[in-house]
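Reminder: ligand-aware prediction takes two inputs, not one.
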Amino acid sequence: MTDQNELKKGLKILMVRPKPSPETIGLQHLMVVEPLELEILYALKRPQDEALIVDLIIEKKPFGYFLTTFQPDVVCFTGYITNVGTILTYCEETKKYSGGKTITVVGGVHCEVCPEDFDHPMVDFRVVRNASKVFTGLLDHIAEPTALPAGIFRPGEKVDPVLLPAFDFSYMLPDRTSVARYRHRYFYIFHDKVALVKTSYGCPYQCSFCFCRIITDDHYHQRPVKEVVDELENIPEKEIYIVDDDFLFDKKWLTQFITELRKRNISKHFLVYGRADFIARNPELMHEMAKTGLRTVIVGFESFSDEELSEYNKKIPAGLYKQTMEILNREKIEVFATIIVSPKWDRNDFRNMVRSLQALGIHYVNLQPLTPLPKTGVHYDDKDILIDRKEYEKWDLAHVTVQPEKMSVAAFYEEILKAYQRILYRPEVLLKYLMTYRPVMLYKMLVGGYRVTLQYRKKIKEAKKHA
Ligand code: SF4
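Here is what comes back for the chain with iron/sulfur cluster:
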């Protein structure tokens, strides 16, 4: 399979997005979006290479089928913390299938922050820094003896963060045609056939629980407005999910963005992440954004207690949320809220959270039990951690990983499930969705929600068994 002379002619590269483990509680039931990082790598292959992206979230066929039919020289994997175990299994399968000849490469945000989790004899290369800059050099290195680019590590090599190359944030355009056969399947909650765009890297804030800001080691970089709008102009999809950690940050940048979109007559619907304080303090800009296609903002409210917000270093007073929601409701911008469920909570805290959300008119929410993700500022003693660090698939921000202080684990899961039901399944909310979105999207959400409910019920049963 991997004769050196043949390799000089070009490599066959399989690029894989893994299937989520059945243990992972599931955003995949409510969203499947394009694998942008693989599309960028695809664009970076050399002219003599042949590549195939396989999205195993969507594919019915197993990973082994693509090994056998495509017969790759190199297999590249990307994923989050929940995918670590699956990726290592795929690497073992790859080596077994090819008698050890096929090269395995792992990258993605978890590998960049926790490369030690992929330090495994079946993983030939870990891409830890500037993947979009070093990928072509890595292919050269695999094809013939050239220097291994900095930021890539072999098994057993220790990654010293101090010695890593500086971040290079220059942008490489993804090749969106590489997932042409999947594109019609990508959606995010009610946004159907959605395309992804990134306009900045990192976040200027330092919330203690946040993994995103660790990826860029607290650096923040914005792409030029013109470059972003050039990219948008060439995307056929109407629905655009801007995957910046915090899109609503720089007033000047956003004003130029609006001007440029209008100048070029670009009409899209945008789904973005934004902070509650920015929205509350910039009503005019939010009005202009709404007129230019902003449809939904994902807002990390996190908590309605100032004490908790300060513990999370969120730097927002809860009193501001009323103003945030008045503006969003006035502009008819949909809100997806995230709330952190603290292990300190009792039943009353759950009730107060539900009441606060209802009073603010928020009806779509993601409840995340506080999770001490590696290298973030949230730490607990080992005795309080309920899930082994190696059970990666359960570190999904939905499992309860820290022992609740005031109730059993089963009761804690029950409270989460009850809260979801009280917020999401009110008749007036369902009626509103029915009148706003296509029935097929509503059906998809109900089925997705039902699957997540079943997963939570399973957790409750398990927790009771182990109590
Ligand atoms: S939670 Fe949001 S605002 Fe806070 S650091 Fe992370 S991305 Fe930034």
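Residues 53 and 180 are 10 Å apart (CA to CA). The chain has two domains: 4-163, 176-466. We will return to this case in the review session.
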